[in-house]
Amino acid sequence: VSVGSAFVKPAEFDLPHLDVCEPACFIATPVLKSGAFQLPTGVEWIGSAAQWWDRNQRHGVFLYGGQWRADAVSPAGLAPSGLYGLSPNQQVMVGSGRQALVPGDTVFFRPQKSEALLQQFGAIVVVSGGQVVDHWPVFPPAP
Q1: With contact defined as beta carbons under 8 Å apart, do 92 and 61 qualify?
Q2: 74-to-43, 45, 69, 124 alpha-carbon distances in Å
Q3: Which DSSP helix (H) or strand (E) runs through 29?
Q4: Total structural domains within the chain
Q5: What is the SS3 assignment for 90?
Q6: Which helix (H) or strand (E) holds 6?
Q7: Position 141 in a domain
Q8: Per-residue pLDDT tens for 57-66?
Q9: What is the mean pLDDT of the chain?
Protein backbone atom coordinates (compact mmCIF):
# COMPACT_ATOMS: atom_id res chain seq x y z
CA VAL A 1 0.00 0.00 0.00
CA SER A 2 1.32 3.40 -0.88
CA VAL A 3 0.52 6.79 0.60
CA GLY A 4 -1.23 7.50 -2.70
CA SER A 5 -3.94 5.05 -1.67
CA ALA A 6 -4.79 7.26 1.29
CA PHE A 7 -5.15 10.26 -1.01
CA VAL A 8 -7.46 8.40 -3.39
CA LYS A 9 -9.25 7.15 -0.25
CA PRO A 10 -11.38 4.27 -1.51
CA ALA A 11 -14.14 3.08 0.81
CA GLU A 12 -11.89 0.46 2.44
CA PHE A 13 -9.80 3.38 3.74
CA ASP A 14 -12.64 4.83 5.81
CA LEU A 15 -10.60 4.54 8.99
CA PRO A 16 -10.48 6.87 12.01
CA HIS A 17 -6.84 7.88 11.44
CA LEU A 18 -7.68 8.91 7.84
CA ASP A 19 -10.69 11.08 8.76
CA VAL A 20 -8.76 14.20 7.72
CA CYS A 21 -8.57 12.86 4.14
CA GLU A 22 -11.52 13.09 1.77
CA PRO A 23 -12.23 10.75 -1.15
CA ALA A 24 -10.53 12.20 -4.20
CA CYS A 25 -11.35 9.82 -7.01
CA PHE A 26 -14.72 8.79 -8.41
CA ILE A 27 -16.02 6.89 -11.42
CA ALA A 28 -18.41 8.97 -13.51
CA THR A 29 -20.71 7.19 -15.95
CA PRO A 30 -23.59 8.42 -18.10
CA VAL A 31 -27.22 7.41 -17.82
CA LEU A 32 -28.34 5.58 -21.00
CA LYS A 33 -32.00 4.94 -20.12
CA SER A 34 -34.25 5.93 -17.25
CA GLY A 35 -37.84 4.98 -16.52
CA ALA A 36 -40.23 2.67 -14.73
CA PHE A 37 -38.36 -0.46 -13.66
CA GLN A 38 -39.48 -3.52 -15.63
CA LEU A 39 -38.19 -7.02 -15.99
CA PRO A 40 -38.43 -8.90 -19.31
CA THR A 41 -41.74 -10.42 -20.41
CA GLY A 42 -42.53 -13.60 -18.55
CA VAL A 43 -41.01 -12.55 -15.23
CA GLU A 44 -42.41 -9.04 -14.96
CA TRP A 45 -44.55 -10.14 -12.01
CA ILE A 46 -41.36 -10.43 -9.94
CA GLY A 47 -40.60 -6.76 -10.60
CA SER A 48 -44.17 -5.79 -9.72
CA ALA A 49 -43.93 -7.66 -6.42
CA ALA A 50 -40.59 -6.01 -5.64
CA GLN A 51 -42.04 -2.56 -6.39
CA TRP A 52 -45.01 -3.22 -4.11
CA TRP A 53 -42.66 -4.31 -1.32
CA ASP A 54 -40.01 -1.60 -1.80
CA ARG A 55 -40.72 1.76 -3.45
CA ASN A 56 -37.01 2.03 -4.26
CA GLN A 57 -37.55 -0.67 -6.89
CA ARG A 58 -39.94 1.51 -8.90
CA HIS A 59 -37.49 3.30 -11.16
CA GLY A 60 -34.71 1.78 -13.25
CA VAL A 61 -31.60 3.55 -14.52
CA PHE A 62 -29.37 1.89 -17.11
CA LEU A 63 -25.76 3.05 -16.95
CA TYR A 64 -22.89 2.75 -19.38
CA GLY A 65 -20.43 0.17 -18.07
CA GLY A 66 -20.64 -1.52 -14.73
CA GLN A 67 -19.55 -4.41 -12.57
CA TRP A 68 -17.04 -2.16 -10.83
CA ARG A 69 -15.96 -2.68 -7.25
CA ALA A 70 -17.50 0.66 -6.36
CA ASP A 71 -20.53 2.11 -4.59
CA ALA A 72 -22.97 4.59 -6.12
CA VAL A 73 -22.66 7.86 -4.17
CA SER A 74 -24.35 10.52 -6.27
CA PRO A 75 -27.16 11.04 -6.73
CA ALA A 76 -28.13 9.42 -3.44
CA GLY A 77 -30.72 6.67 -3.30
CA LEU A 78 -29.55 4.39 -6.12
CA ALA A 79 -28.68 0.74 -5.60
CA PRO A 80 -27.76 -2.11 -7.95
CA SER A 81 -30.76 -4.12 -9.07
CA GLY A 82 -30.77 -7.52 -7.43
CA LEU A 83 -33.14 -8.72 -10.16
CA TYR A 84 -30.88 -7.97 -13.15
CA GLY A 85 -27.52 -9.67 -13.42
CA LEU A 86 -24.32 -7.64 -13.31
CA SER A 87 -22.66 -6.79 -16.60
CA PRO A 88 -19.50 -4.88 -17.55
CA ASN A 89 -21.44 -3.41 -20.49
CA GLN A 90 -24.50 -1.92 -18.76
CA GLN A 91 -25.50 -1.74 -15.13
CA VAL A 92 -29.07 -1.41 -13.91
CA MET A 93 -29.58 0.69 -10.81
CA VAL A 94 -32.92 1.09 -9.08
CA GLY A 95 -34.38 3.85 -6.96
CA SER A 96 -37.57 5.67 -6.15
CA GLY A 97 -37.28 7.98 -9.18
CA ARG A 98 -36.80 11.04 -6.97
CA GLN A 99 -33.35 11.39 -8.53
CA ALA A 100 -35.12 12.50 -11.75
CA LEU A 101 -32.28 11.18 -13.91
CA VAL A 102 -32.55 11.42 -17.68
CA PRO A 103 -30.28 10.04 -20.42
CA GLY A 104 -27.04 11.99 -20.48
CA ASP A 105 -27.01 12.69 -16.73
CA THR A 106 -24.06 11.36 -14.74
CA VAL A 107 -23.93 8.91 -11.84
CA PHE A 108 -20.84 8.86 -9.61
CA PHE A 109 -19.33 5.81 -7.92
CA ARG A 110 -16.71 5.65 -5.19
CA PRO A 111 -14.19 2.80 -5.55
CA GLN A 112 -14.18 0.26 -2.71
CA LYS A 113 -10.58 -0.83 -3.16
CA SER A 114 -7.29 0.87 -3.95
CA GLU A 115 -6.35 2.75 -7.06
CA ALA A 116 -5.84 -0.48 -9.08
CA LEU A 117 -9.41 0.01 -10.32
CA LEU A 118 -8.29 3.15 -12.14
CA GLN A 119 -6.34 1.07 -14.66
CA GLN A 120 -9.67 0.03 -16.20
CA PHE A 121 -10.25 3.58 -17.41
CA GLY A 122 -8.51 6.25 -19.43
CA ALA A 123 -6.95 9.41 -18.07
CA ILE A 124 -8.15 10.86 -14.78
CA VAL A 125 -10.10 14.06 -15.34
CA VAL A 126 -9.05 16.63 -12.74
CA VAL A 127 -11.88 18.91 -11.62
CA SER A 128 -11.47 21.99 -9.45
CA GLY A 129 -14.23 24.47 -8.68
CA GLY A 130 -16.57 22.59 -11.01
CA GLN A 131 -14.23 23.04 -13.99
CA VAL A 132 -12.02 20.50 -15.78
CA VAL A 133 -8.48 21.75 -15.18
CA ASP A 134 -6.30 18.84 -16.31
CA HIS A 135 -6.08 15.22 -17.42
CA TRP A 136 -3.65 12.86 -15.69
CA PRO A 137 -2.55 9.57 -17.24
CA VAL A 138 -3.00 6.42 -15.17
CA PHE A 139 0.15 4.40 -14.51
CA PRO A 140 0.16 1.03 -16.30
CA PRO A 141 0.15 -2.13 -14.17
CA ALA A 142 3.56 -3.25 -12.97
CA PRO A 143 4.98 -6.24 -14.87
Answers
A1: yes
A2: 30, 29, 16, 18
A3: strand 27-36
A4: 1
A5: strand
A6: helix 3-8
A7: no
A8: 668 899 999 8
A9: 82
